[in-house]
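Box 3.1. Reading complex inputs
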Amino acid sequence: MGPEGSYSEKAAKLWVQKNMLDGAEIHYFADIEDAFLAVVQGKSDFSVIPIENSIEGSVGVTLDLLLENGAEIIGEIVVKIEHCLLSKGEPEKIRVILSHPQGLAQCRHFLKTNFPEAELRSTGSTSHAARLAGEFEEMAAIASPEAAECYGLKVLLSNVQDRKENYTRFIVLRASETNRVQQVSFIAENKSDNVKSYSSSEQESGHEFYPESKIEPDNSSLSACKTSIIVYLEKDRPGALYEILGAFAKSRINLTRIESRPSKKELGDYYFYIDFEGRASDPLIKNALKEIKNKIHTLKILGSYPAFKKP
Amino acid sequence: MGPEGSYSEKAAKLWVQKNMLDGAEIHYFADIEDAFLAVVQGKSDFSVIPIENSIEGSVGVTLDLLLENGAEIIGEIVVKIEHCLLSKGEPEKIRVILSHPQGLAQCRHFLKTNFPEAELRSTGSTSHAARLAGEFEEMAAIASPEAAECYGLKVLLSNVQDRKENYTRFIVLRASETNRVQQVSFIAENKSDNVKSYSSSEQESGHEFYPESKIEPDNSSLSACKTSIIVYLEKDRPGALYEILGAFAKSRINLTRIESRPSKKELGDYYFYIDFEGRASDPLIKNALKEIKNKIHTLKILGSYPAFKKP
């Protein structure tokens, strides 16, 4: 997500660095959907997308896109968020405040207390907000200090989010196998050597193989790896979620997150997004997933990937 | 939530009608937080607040406020949402589109496809967006057809949300017992006869008694009533959620919803919001809650109330 100076860019650079993908080129997209679809449509090899914030919670559009599209999660990155109030003008003149909806929500108290009369504008990214705020003195953006530098804005106030500790988790996506096969000709023309070729030795499952690159998951222990799935329960089977959690508990698989998202079919009908420790190819987890499959309507494995460790 | 013409107003009127509170006066507040706090601070006897939408999911700020404040859920109302694009001007001139963040999110595809260049502004309510849109021809609001009437706007397009079926669930709140006791003098001066006095026969638990009014929960069957709770698990006890669901499953208590919300302390730490059928005073449920209490760090009972039935 761009333009330059976004938290997504920070996450992308961190990921590039962690995986030593020195030749990687960063492309910028207008919003979460465009950045997500770039990988599905073969416009990028990998996409870095925010999924969860420690103050405001899940990024709904990311969860919806994960369900609707063929993309595989191959990594995660956690970035510390330090929202600043940026402007060309003076605080007392600010009439309009711009940011991504998550940025506005993370600073809700701050905005309500300090700028109760200000107009709040939603933008596709925090950095886009900063770019726009550079146009008029009466505008301010909620964005990173880096965005201030990029667009020649003053940092009027630092750390304006409602809680000092603020982290966003980003996921790294690539197109799922079916999509990748269709994109081979495109990928072959691509400059980035590291991500050109894919191992096909494990093609049995679409979600259990990795490119022949440096982006290998850490195999050293179960807890070093995470798997994300989406499950959709049979309607009117209220005990089903309990049975699913039971399949994990029985095998002592640690869940790290469970999140519901409306099915959009009717009120009270949900998909569950579940993250747990371990790889989908581990025999223990394979068995648990097999057991779960029999109890539910839909199981979508989003991917297995190394859990984020602080650098 | 106001001003006039909001979906919250529709929900409030429906609730007043259902409970035959003919003398009730409707007060309007600028946003969800103000409407919520009105009941906590004794500015209103009841508050009607959106909690969940069938397209965009939970209303985060409502969940946070339920955790932080002493308010009791005593009812729920479901309202069909039919977002329209409202303006004084013509579609081709629209440069700015205003709505509540939930309204913008529910129409994300529509906006991106039809108005990719438009500026999106967040307002405290959809009706506030409509009121503002009346000021300039180049502005439009995403709001109800009723809001168009209120503010003299044309309905340029109807049903612009991303899915035709769109429902929002509202909760009806009153101050919790502790707060109510402090407000007795205030309430005594209030005009609404129906809600003046409270039964104190069940004061053993702060969440299990109801005013001596027509707002009695339907006691005819367990499924006619719902209870909402918040639980906070001991950190690093991954099996705890499973055990909690087990306590419900064992007693055949039907869960209707489970939602996580960040604790805001650190990434990966959550509160769970659980709705289930039945009243907290039912012996079966009392037992289940007692069992749960021993397994977790915090249990907050938000209230037991009649489940919404279509009129």
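In summary: The radius of gyration of chain A is 21 Å.
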